[in-house]
Amino acid sequence: MISAYIDRYEGNLAVLLLGEEMKKVNFPREFLPEDVDEGDYIKIDIALDKEANDAAEQEALELLRD
User: Fold this and answer.
1) What is the pLDDT along the chain (66 residues), one digit of tens a residue?
2) Could you tell me which InterPro entries the record lists for this protein (predicted)?
3) Which one of 34, 40, 49, 54 is at 20 to 30 Å from 64 when CA atoms are compared?
């Protein structure tokens, strides 16, 4: 889990400061919860989507067979 600070909004982007190093990243505002604002801390969970990977691999294999 990554801790992020919402530094500011710039149009449709949120400027987030990530982790202890406060690495700056631009993040689409539409993917943030509606009730967060500048100055709030959020948590971001990034995980491998094995099911989506497996489905994409299966689809690619099926296309190769055709």
Assistant:
1) 999 999 999 999 999 999 999 999 999 999 999 999 999 999 999 999 999 999 999 998 888 887
2) DUF3006 (IPR021377)
3) 49
The Cα–Cα gap between 55 and 50 comes to 9
CATH number of 2-65: 2.40.50
Under 8 Å between Cβ of 57 and 37: no
- C-alpha 3/C-alpha 62 separation (Å) is 40
Domains of the chain by residue range: 2-65
User: pTM of this prediction?
Assistant: 0.78
